[in-house]
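Morning F.,

Quick status update on the modeling queue. The single chain you submitted on Monday has been processed. Sequence for confirmation:
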Amino acid sequence: MKKILVLGSTGSIGTSALDLARRHKDRFAVAGLQANSSKEELRSLAAEFNCPSTLTSQDGVDGIARLLDAAKPDIVVNGIAGAAGLLPSKMAVERGIDLALANKETVVMAWPLIKAEAKKSGAQIIPVDSEHSAIFNLIHFCGAKNISEIVITASGGPFRSLPRERLESVTIDDALKHPTWKMGKKITVDSATLANKGLEVIEARRLFEESGAEISVVVHPESLIHSLVRTSDGILYAQISEPDMRHPIMGALCWPEYVESGLEKFSLAGRSMSFFEPRRDDFPLLAIAEDAAKKRGAETIAFNAADEVAAHAFIDKKIKFLDIARAVQKTLAADWSQAPRDFDDVFEADKKARSIAEAAL
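Structure tokens below.
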């Protein structure tokens, strides 16, 4: 029986993880729950799973530390959105607790520091993003030394085929109509701008840097292939499943075993798949992120922070859709060449980037 602690338990990742816990009561016990502010929902979940340790974000970072110590989980599912998820990841790996990681900021903002903590404590970090889960497994099967290229798939978002001139007038309601995935507002907006794919490129470069592979992006609207790797002989290998986040979460919870999930099995019959080059000129955040990913200063922190500020401004109807990329570009024009030495430096760079982005807006 594996004891799991779910951070962000009422969000899309958290609810998927808890659905798996319901389906596999013989395999998983919910030892702890955290949610942003839904106290009533949290109480209901705690009663359902007979979970004594719960927490809302109002209890602060110290509350996360107390929750980890009280719950004593075998693995933490970090589904907290945004920079708020970074310190909980740090706290988990410091304690030697395995981490099923859906929080992008942990990798984008502070991967060298988190990786060092995990190496020191022996904690495993297993990615939960569908793309990085696919790459993680494909590299496991093929061997890192045999990989020459990592190909990350992108749905293209709701505006994949929309002409450039119409992007100026799209609304938040338009942006939230994602064609394949059901996600929170911010990540859905990031999918529409391709910022999310840019963040995933940064993550892939950090998570799988030991392979030394080139990283590319291909638009795949059906979201059936979650990523691919190319081996040194030129052959592509893909991971294929229905677009359901429970697949990568189950994989992370059970790693290194492969366990019957009870989820819908993918069938090739009657299905079609299409692939396109990303429209980098019309959706510039992808190219900006790709450039930041190649650098070793605080560029990726600045990209993440500026995008978070601008995306929320668009959600709040304060700016237009294309203003998101403009604000991020202005933020990245500052000097970010100094690499963070510790977590204080990480948060100082994050604060600086947010200030610049807000001024740009």
